[in-house]
């Protein structure tokens, strides 16, 4: 069930019953399961499907010839890995599973049917694509301008808020199944530097990490540390005028 995708899209516009049913039908056609650290698709492959993450975490990454890796984005339940990827002849990046991942392979034909027949879903997917681009811009700022402490705190704020938006937080905590190596590859920091910054955040009471569970006792305080402004995630229902069940009020003439 793509409930996380539906919840995410409804941050932008309230979908009708038929919209939700179409999303469920589309996501249930070709479920796949990959183990942790397996590549879902590699740079140079020909993309034929849009992948919808149902369970687990994955990442988009690039690898240099000498083996160094840069994580460009994290995917969590509800995320579509490039909704329009099938227009490309070959992948210019790779997508790999961080944990065991269950995802749906959505064919070009199924994606076209969905967007042709359900205009509100199409508009919500436009919004989702724009938010993805906004996240990439923020990651560029993170790498270019923020200190190591700000970078890591900013990433933790973003991941927590994205998880909360799709119902995957429990109060002030959430699962964070990424390693310190993953965090370093996403923030341009060495494993040793990531460890040092995490210890600094722990010592200041900004975060708690136990196993794979992250707790942020005071999210606003961590946002201050990170110079974090959540506006780029666009979670304030900007598309409420597109609601499926919107009531139009008529002014008496």
TrEMBL record:
> What GO molecular functions are on record for this protein?
DNA binding
Q: Which InterPro entries match?
A: cNMP-bd_dom, cNMP-bd_dom_sf, HTH_CRP, RmlC-like_jellyroll, WH-like_DNA-bd_sf, WH_DNA-bd_sf
Pfam family of this protein, just one? cNMP_binding
The alphabetized UniProt keywords are: DNA-binding, Transcription, Transcription regulation
The organism's place on the tree of life at top rank: Bacteria
Which positions fall inside the HTH crp-type domain?
Answer: 146-220
Example GO BP: regulation of DNA-templated transcription
Q: What is this protein called?
A: Cyclic nucleotide-binding protein
Q: Which organism is it from?
A: Methylobacterium durans
């Amino acid at each position: 069930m793509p409930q996380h995708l539906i919840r995410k899209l409804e941050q932008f516009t309230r979908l009708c019953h038929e919209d939700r049913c179409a999303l469920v039908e589309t996501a249930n056609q070709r479920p796949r399961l990959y183990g942790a650290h397996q590549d879902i698709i590699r740079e140079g492959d020909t993309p034929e499907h849009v992948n919808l993450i149902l369970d687990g975490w994955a990442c988009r990454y690039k690898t240099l010839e000498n083996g160094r890796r840069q994580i460009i984005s994290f995917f969590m339940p509800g995320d579509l890995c490039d909704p329009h990827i099938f227009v490309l002849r070959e992948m210019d990046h790779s997508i790999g599973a961080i944990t065991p991942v269950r995802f749906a392979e959505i064919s070009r034909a199924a994606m076209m049917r969905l967007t042709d027949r359900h205009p509100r879903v199409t508009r919500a997917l436009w919004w989702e694509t724009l938010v993805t681009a906004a996240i990439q811009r923020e990651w560029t700022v993170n790498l270019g301008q923020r200190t190591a402490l700000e970078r890591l705190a900013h990433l933790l704020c973003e991941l927590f808020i994205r998880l909360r938006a799709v119902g995957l937080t429990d109060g002030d905590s959430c699962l964070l199944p990424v390693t310190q190596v993953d965090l370093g590859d996403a923030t341009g920091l060495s494993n040793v530097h990531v460890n040092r910054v995490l210890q600094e955040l722990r010592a200041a009471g900004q975060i708690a990490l136990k196993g794979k569970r992250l707790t942020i006792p005071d999210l606003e305080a961590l946002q201050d540390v990170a110079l974090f402004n959540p506006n780029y995630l666009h979670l304030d229902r900007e598309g409420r005028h597109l609601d499926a069940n919107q009531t139009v009020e008529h002014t008496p003439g």
